[in-house]
Write a structure and sequence with these properties.
With 335 residues, the protein is α+β, with helices and mostly antiparallel strands. 23% of the residues lie in helices and 28% in strands. It contains 7 helices and 20 strands. It has a 5-stranded antiparallel beta sheet, with no helix packed on it. A 4-stranded mixed beta sheet has the order 1-2-5-3, covered by helices on one side. A 4-stranded antiparallel beta sheet has the order 13-19-18-17, covered by helices on one side.
Amino acid sequence: MTVQENVSLRQYNTFGIDQYAGHFVQVRELKDLLYAIDFDSKHIIIGGGSNLLLTRDIDGLVIKNDIKGIEELDNNKEYVLVKVFSGENWHSTVSQMVSKGWGGIENLSLIPGTVGAAPIQNIGAYGVEIKDVLVAVEAIELATGKILEFSNEECQFGYRDSFFKSKEAKGKYFVYSLTLRLNKHGKINTQYGEIEKKLREKNILNPTIMDMHQAIMEIRQNKLPDPAIIGNAGSFFKNPILPNALAHELKEKSPNLPMYKWNDHESKVAAGWLIDQAGWKGKRIGHVGCYEKQALVIVNHGNATGSEVLDFSKLVQDDILNKYGIAIEPEINIW
Ligand code: FAD
Ligand code: NAP
């Protein structure tokens, strides 16, 4: 393991932003990590860099997580317990589990990044979140090097949120492994977004988890920009959760607004729809724009800086606030 000096992070973030790390190290096992956190107390962890916007150079050590491995802890008629180390690629983990017939994460297919980042924002797609299958997180407390275990409840999962994003915990833990409980005869969740339409197109009446995996990959490949071709970090903003009165008022003004029950008092509205209606879909300013097929995704058309992306995102936020009176919040981590 070598600690490198003054390293461009361009290839380590899917926005393709060219900021530098004072020091940079790739950790492949626990002892590398323990060495790294001793080397410099100012450190930042990076997985696949697919939920990040870099707006400055990092003065400190960037630790790139490459700790890999998958272990079967239990396997019975109903379910399996699998421990996955955090540097594994998320999508490749999903593919491996689906090929074995183990269900629960097929709707989370083709989400970029590492396993270790999955609980940080409680990744979600098509009605499933990592919290639905997560039993425990093993994490290293960065100040002490101690290994701690967090139960699902202790992770305090919320909508694209967890304990690890809270003020109290942010930047203090390195997620080392996840234990997932995957089902052999679980329920298949087709009732979301474009899944049913895609299954109909493919003449699939009783989908298996492999059918779901493939259908979701096809939908996503069609709709979302591939970061290898055009820089982006997925949805830039979270969908706002609004008090019912406000959501219904908005729906009266804009009857086509996609709105979903959140709980008895609140509703979720689609931020992408608001951004699209406000005229931003496909719009470009300099090197930055809203993706032409999904306005919630901000893209780097070329050599944008992180500040240019951030400035663009603020224009979108201000416009949505002016037009709809709603403050949309970034989902991605801005450094
Ligand atoms: P990074 O961007 O490297 O890091 C994200 C944050 O987690 C940072 O704060 C980092 O410090 C921290 N972190 C990373 N690893 C660790 C660790 N081991 N320990 C502690 N902290 C850590 N997200 C969804 O939820 N649903 C989607 O459907 C989805 N679709 C996407 C589609 C595209 C095209 C793209 C580009 C992104 C999408 N995302 C989606 C966002 C992103 O892929 C996920 O949030 C993913 O989990 C980020 O993983 P990463 O390894 O790239 O994290
Ligand atoms: P979509 O299907 O066009 O739907 C638009 C929005 O409506 C989504 O954001 C979704 O909310 C919500 N929605 C759709 N059907 C719903 C239902 N039956 N019940 C409740 N809410 C519903 O969205 P898309 O852009 O193609 O994305 C598909 C899925 O992938 C979504 O779950 C989305 O979150 C996920 N995704 C996430 C990212 C990211 O970076 N975070 C990037 C791309 C896609 P939710 O977002 O709350 O699910």
